[in-house]
Design a protein that fits this description.
single chain, alpha/beta, Rossmann fold, 2 domains, seven-stranded parallel beta sheet, six-stranded parallel beta sheet, disordered N terminus
Length: about 425
């Protein structure tokens, strides 16, 4: 399992995470942010960590950044969130003791353009505030972080949050991202991959990354999460399937819709609820109409709190063509919702432990997906077993444990710099 980076300094960081989290107590409230004075005595006595991404909203990578920032031990770390542009849907969930600052003031629709326009401001911010750690999330912010010139004592940690080959295949960004991985990433002080599959991809693209590479799975739940306190969303009492994710080609919703049409042949009362927005929404709604699903499917758009819907569902379904990790799979497990997922590269097989905690089906296989859903709907005992095992599995992906693993990486990087 740990065949990568056997001689690197970051081996087994996740498994050796510290025992004490110093995280806020369960139930602590996230209030509107109040800016901390950057030069305050309290902030200066702790390790300053600047967390950077393009925009704080919409995806699993941004949610993971938020959970790490909210959960780092405040006795040791003073986190700050910097984004290329504001307006992200997760901004209101930032703890009130975490400073938040957008770098690009003028509006731009292009996330790529905003990230690269932010490089001068990011450099200036890193030089003036002198963080010990500049930790970036996602490939374009990672490249931007490596193109900055922070103060000499700042260490750069890059977090790779998607499949580096598939996420950009055939796009204009593919050459730039691959160039960054091969030529910029080796200069980082540490690289955190969100799954072992992604780590393997990175090493195939640039073997020199072995020196700085480790794996820390993403957080599935926030501070003090308790599935028993989640109030289920309103449901009709009929079998409910749930899907959650951006409506784009990566998630392969056409396979899900066609599989659901087959499920309705034996379970005509079943319903499918889809959370998420994206460029394919209109075409997916048209496909659902052509398949005769209009009365059995709901497109609810982006939902900032998917847990209520997960708690209400009988099954969670993911049909992605590829993933970096598959946060929503772990989130569903945390709610006790059985999962049917494609065995895509990468993440679901790691989360579900080769099918021990949920059903795995081949990518793009309508019949296998429909059969897996039908078998679980017909077998309440198997659903119950998956539910109980899944909650135990999800306990390994809490924000507190993931923040401890990130803290271990930060400490190791700083100890090597000393």
């Amino acid at each position: 399992m740990h065949r990568w980076y056997p001689d690197g300094p970051f081996r087994r960081v996740l498994e050796t995470a510290g025992k004490a989290s110093g995280s806020p107590p369960p139930g602590s409230k996230l209030r509107p942010r109040q800016r901390l004075r950057r030069g305050s005595r309290e902030a200066m006595s702790r390790t300053r960590v600047m967390l950077f991404t393009g925009r704080l909203g919409g995806g699993g990578a941004e949610k993971n950044l938020l959970r790490v920032a909210n959960s780092l031990d405040r006795a040791e770390f003073a986190p700050e969130i910097i984004v290329a542009r504001s307006g992200g849907s997760y901004e209101l969930q930032i703890r009130n003791d975490v400073p938040f600052r957008p770098l690009v003031r003028h509006l731009t629709r292009s996330s790529t353009l905003s990230v690269f326009r932010s490089i001068p401001a990011l450099s200036m911010s890193a030089r003036s505030s002198r963080p010990s750690i500049l930790c970036s999330f996602m490939d374009l912010p990672n490249a931007a972080a490596m193109l900055t010139s922070p103060s000499a004592h700042t260490r750069r940690v890059l977090c790779v949050q998607n499949n580096p080959r598939e996420a950009y295949r055939g796009t204009r960004l593919e050459p730039a991202v691959h160039f960054a991985i091969r030529h910029l990433y080796p200069r980082a002080d540490a690289i955190i991959a969100l799954s072992h599959g992604v780590a393997a991809e990175l090493l195939e693209m640039q073997p020199a990354l072995e020196r700085v590479l480790t794996v820390v799975h993403n957080a599935a739940t926030g501070n003090g999460f308790d599935a028993e306190t989640v109030v289920p969303a309103k449901a009709s009492g009929r079998p409910l399937l749930l899907a959650c994710g951006r409506l784009n080609e990566q998630k392969d919703y056409p396979t899900m819709l066609r599989a659901f049409a087959r499920v309705l042949e034996t379970h005509p009362a079943a319903r499918l609820r889809i959370l998420g927005d994206g460029p394919l929404r209109s075409s997916l709604e048209a496909l659902s109409r052509s398949l005769g699903l209009s009365r059995s499917i709901e497109f609810l758009g982006f939902q900032p709190d998917p847990f209520a819907h997960m708690k209400a569902a009988d099954l969670f379904v993911l049909t992605s063509a590829y993933e970096g990790f598959g946060n929503v799979v772990a989130e569903a497990l945390a709610c006790g919702t059985p999962v049917v997922s494609t065995d895509c590269d990468h993440g679901p097989r790691e989360i579900l432990a080769d099918g021990e905690y949920g059903a795995l089906v081949p990518v793009g296989d309508v019949e296998a997906t429909a059969n897996a859903i039908t078998r679980l709907l017909d077998d309440p005992e198997r659903r119950r077993a998956f539910s109980e095992r899944g909650k135990l599995r999800a306990s390994q992906f809490t924000a507190e444990s993931v923040a401890r693993a990130y803290a271990d990486v930060f400490r190791l990087v700083l100890s090597h710099a000393a």
